[in-house]
From TrEMBL:
This is Eukaryotic aspartyl protease. The active site is at D82, D286. Residues 433-454, 489-506, 522-542 have a biased composition (Low complexity). Residues 64-393 form the Peptidase A1 domain. InterPro entries: Aspartic_peptidase_A1, Aspartic_peptidase_AS, PEPTIDASE_A1, Peptidase_aspartic_dom_sf. Belongs to the peptidase A1 family. It holds the Pfam family Asp.
Length: 570
């Protein structure tokens, strides 16, 4: 693992990243890694209203991306960040990009060539066809055929050895590679199946403590957000992180899905709630989808209250003035005791004023319901694969970061973790308003890897409403992976990643018979566990835990002494 800066913060040992003052740096800390993620917005100034919506909503030019480094020496590739699919793949066919602008972005996103890597890579070791899109909306449907390879992958300061990923052999309508962070539709959350996916490998190779990542897409007007593998940033949310159990998708498949228990809207202090039938409660959280997609029985009443009108493609517009109606105008999504408020400035998209009408980030679907970027920007989400729960809070920014590495176990993200930010948020379900009090971080424990490769071939179905983006830069801390979202206008590249990867035996999986084409790279050997031993990581976690206890007791003692002195003076 690449060395970094280890920072101790009062109240416990954490690796703190000043992402706001250093928006282009990548941070690597003990138990997590930080690297840039960008929100990509297209230039729509030269387009008509009709062309603008086709570019943004049909052609997926509004999305979140990050850069990864593959092989030795490193080859930088931009990938779309997607919590709605499971595969990592690169090298889309730029000639099939939906627009000229996307074709240009596709060419600038970088390509990986296994012949140029000295790691050495292995492959091809199997093939797969991936289908993306809402089956009920042909406008969203795209596909990619990939061949599997294995090579080192660097994300920020974290290096994965012998990581399996896909290289496109044929794609249609996709202009950027994809970093999938969801479970496999067949194997679910099983370790190492159908091969070791990115999140699994990060934990298995000791880069992070457990299979957890947190996501903060920030607000539509902000330049950046953050993805943290293996950690939680308490400087990015208001109130308490509440734990919500994951559920299977609408068709019974493993998804990053939860039960929606309530939905409402407030406009200028006029509140309204909408009835949910049992079939309306299953929703998937998908950062790879620009819009929120709900069943007509929910979406149409909301659209009617926004006085929306529809176009021939099924997209809806409302008065742009609603985006500026203030903090008392928002849509609410409730999950058990937690309610996330989505300001209308996020829920209604700013594609440039078109006769005073703006597009609403909501459409109807008769398939899997999706909470896309238009909703997710308002929340802070921690996805815990190991415990199959999602922790949620209202997103905010306090001007400082406090990233806490997460360990392993049923309470890896402790109940009652509270953010450092103050600000408006919906009260939790017990009726108590959220607060900004501080709770101590959890200690970390080592992770025990399991490997079980298979050779399944499946078809993935999910919605992707996006495309490629500008270049990021890096900062370094020591142990989980945090991704700081940078502005699209940024064109400055960050520091170069390491030129070598840690030693380790190859681990292969998820393959069907190898293609007959000879690529000149060696074929894989039998699957085996790889990556560094977890003993070092275990020792450092114990030391960190011990230091947390000492610091916490010290702070408690100091506080009591200060109070005693104050009363004595009185």
């Amino acid at each position: 693992m690449k060395s970094g800066v280890f920072v101790a913060v009062a109240g416990g040992v954490v690796n703190s990243v000043t992402a706001l003052s250093l928006p282009r740096t990548t941070t690597e800390g003990k138990g997590y890694i930080a690297m840039p993620v960008r929100q990509v917005r297209p230039d729509l100034g030269h387009l008509t209203k009709r062309e603008a919506i086709e570019v943004v909503l049909k052609n997926r030019e509004f999305y979140y991306s990050t850069d990864i480094i593959i092989g030795t020496p490193g080859q930088q590739v931009t990938v779309l960040l997607d919590t709605g699919s499971s595969e990592l793949w690169v090298n889309p066919d730029c000639s099939t990009a939906p627009s000229a602008a996307q074709a240009k972005q596709c060419s600038a996103a970088g390509q990986y060539n296994p012949r140029n890597s000295r790691t050495p890579p292995t492959g091809p070791i199997g093939t797969r066809r991936l289908n993306y899109g809402d089956p009920s909306d042909p406008n969203t449907q795209t596909s990619a055929e990939i061949a599997y390879y294995s090579d080192s992958i660097t994300m920020g300061g974290g290096v994965l050895s012998n990581q399996t990923f896909g290289i496109v052999t044929k794609s249609d309508g996709i202009a950027t590679g994809i970093m999938g962070l969801a479970p496999d539709l067949k194997a679910g959350f099983e370790h190492g199946k159908p091969y070791s996916l990115i999140l699994n490998s990060l934990a298995e190779q000791g880069v992070i403590g457990s299979r957890i990542f947190s996501l903060d897409l920030r607000h539509a007007s902000a330049d950046s957000g953050a993805l943290i593998y293996g950690g939680v940033d308490r400087g990015k949310f208001i109130g308490e992180l509440l734990r919500v159990p994951m559920v299977n998708g609408a068709k019974g498949e493993p998804r990053l899905a939860v039960e929606l228990t309530g939905i409402g809207m407030n406009i200028a202090n006029s509140a309204k709630t909408y009835a949910l039938a049992p079939e309306d409660k299953n929703v998937m959280l998908d950062s790879g989808t620009t819009l929120t997609r709900l069943h007509p029985s929910i979406a149409r009443p909301i659209l009617a209250d926004l006085k929306a009108t529809t176009d021939s493609d099924g997209y809806w517009t409302a008065a742009c003035s609603l985006r500026n109606s203030g903090s008392d105008s928002y849509v609410t999504f409730t999950f058990g005791r937690k309610t996330i408020r989505v300001p209308l400035s996020d829920f209604i998209l700013d594609l440039g004023p078109r006769d005073g009408q703006c597009y609403i980030g909501l459409v109807t679907t008769n398939d899997q319901q999706i909470l896309g970027d238009s909703m997710m920007r308002a929340g802070y989400f921690v996805f815990d694969w190991d415990n199959q729960v999602i922790h949620m809070a209202q997103a905010s920014t306090c001007g400082k970061d406090e990233i806490v590495a997460v360990g392993k176990g049923s309470d890896a993200v402790p109940s009652g973790v509270v953010g450092l930010c103050d600000g408006p948020a919906a009260p939790d379900g017990d009726g108590n308003p959220t607060t900004s009090a501080v709770s101590p971080p959890a200690s970390s424990t080592p992770y025990t890897p399991t490997v079980s490769p298979t050779g399944d071939t499946v078809t993935i179905t999910k919605t992707v409403d996006n495309g490629p983006a500008p270049t990021p830069t890096y900062v370094t801390l020591s142990g989980c992976i945090a991704l700081t979202l940078c502005p699209q206008s940024s064109s400055t590249n960050g520091a170069s990643p390491p030129s070598s990867s840690p030693a380790g035996e190859s681990q292969n999986g998820g393959s069907s018979p190898a293609p007959s084409k000879n690529t000149g790279v060696s074929a894989p050997t039998a699957a085996s566990t790889g990556g560094p031993s977890s003993s070092t990581s275990s020792d450092s976690h114990s030391a960190a835990s011990s230091l947390v206890d000492e610091r916490f007791l010290g702070l408690l003692l100091g506080s009591l002494m200060t109070l005693a002195a104050a009363f004595w003076n009185i």
